[in-house]
């Protein structure tokens, strides 16, 4: 006798629940409550692990035991860009314009580290803004903004990479 699976009942996680209408509140428990355990024969014996699991399901991070990889990649990409743009001191308008471009691009087609593209996009946004007097083009030399050089050095971006990716970003945005 073989068992068959009714594929119409199997659901896949399509999109994260961004409204988060369910509040479980496990993270604010006292340590004595959170450290307690269920008697036995339960999915997670620790109550804290169980409610953390439910919270991840509610957030759309996972469906059962399967993680929503697309959602996590998108979230990580956004957080990376926000970290770099805040270090570079972009204005809210510059940051939001650059973030929308960064998020819509499929960077796996570029074959370049995301950090380099994010840095170059931020540099282009500042350089092309008429209201911003900072010099951040990779060819500015000694007169360039020190903050951009520091961030590029901390991200291990060579000068050749700065020039190459900056020109790719410029071609993308001027096309």
Keywords:
single chain; 175 residues; mainly alpha; two-stranded antiparallel ribbon; 51% helix; elongated
Overview of this structure, please?
By secondary structure, the chain is mainly α. It folds into two domains: 32-67, no CATH class; 73-174. It has seven helices and two strands; from the N terminus they run ααββααααα. The protein has helices at residues 31-34, 47-59, 69-88, 92-104, 114-128, 146-154, 159-174, and strands spanning 62-63, 66-67. A two-stranded antiparallel ribbon has the order 1-2. A hairpin with a 2-residue loop joins strand 1 and strand 2. Helix 4 (92-104) packs across helix 5 (114-128). The termini are far apart. The mean pLDDT is 81.
Gyration radius (Cα, Å) is 23 Å
Whole-number tally of structural domains: 2
Strand content: under 5%
Strand order of the largest sheet: 1-2
SS elements, strand count: 2
SSE order and pairing:
Layout: H1 31-34, H2 47-59, E1 62-63, E2 66-67, H3 69-88, H4 92-104, H5 114-128, H6 146-154, H7 159-174
Antiparallel strand pairs: 1-2
Helix pairs in contact: 3-4, 3-5, 4-5, 5-7
């Amino acid at each position: 006798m073989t068992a068959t699976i009714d594929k119409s009942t199997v659901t896949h996680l399509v999109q994260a629940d961004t409204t988060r209408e369910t509040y479980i509140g496990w993270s604010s428990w006292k340590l004595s409550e959170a450290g307690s355990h269920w008697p036995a024969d339960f999915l997670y014996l620790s109550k804290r692990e169980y409610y953390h699991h439910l919270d991840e399901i509610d957030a759309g991070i996972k469906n059962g035991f399967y993680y929503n990889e697309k959602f996590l990649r998108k979230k990580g990409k956004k957080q990376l860009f926000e970290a770099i743009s805040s270090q570079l001191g972009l204005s809210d308008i510059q940051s939001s314009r650059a973030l929308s471009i960064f998020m819509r691009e499929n960077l796996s087609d570029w074959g370049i580290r995301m950090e380099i593209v994010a840095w170059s996009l931020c540099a282009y946004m500042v350089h092309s803004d008429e209201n911003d007097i900072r010099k951040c083009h990779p060819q500015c030399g000694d007169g360039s903004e020190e903050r951009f050089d520091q961030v590029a050095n901390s991200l291990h971006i060579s000068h050749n990479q700065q020039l190459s990716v900056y020109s790719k970003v410029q071609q993308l945005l001027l096309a």
